[in-house]
Design a protein that fits this description.
about 80 residues; mainly beta; five-stranded mixed beta sheet; two-stranded antiparallel sheet; about 15% helix; about 35% strand
Length: about 80
């Protein structure tokens, strides 16, 4: 399953920096599936921890230049890989 960010990030590095700055709870993502009735409802990036979901950017429809995963490190901090 893939997700796109509500705010456009030019690179995975920019997304990573935003997560460090404002937190994963403040960055919203939307499901890209047309078959999911809740796809248009944004959810916090932090809700993707522990899933196999992939974040696509900078634009899920027009420019899939980078892909990212959401994980936690050993200290329990949410990171973008």
């Amino acid at each position: 399953m893939s997700y796109g960010t509500v705010t456009r990030f030019a690179s995975k590095k920019a997304l990573r920096e935003a997560v460090e700055e404002v937190g994963a709870d403040k960055i919203m993502v939307k499901d890209t599936s047309f078959h999911n009735p809740l796809a248009h409802v944004p959810v916090p990036l932090s809700s993707l921890v522990g899933t196999s979901a992939v974040i696509v950017g900078p634009d899920v429809n027009l420019d899939r230049r980078w892909y990212a995963n959401v994980k936690t490190n050993k200290a329990g901090k949410i990171i973008i890989t």
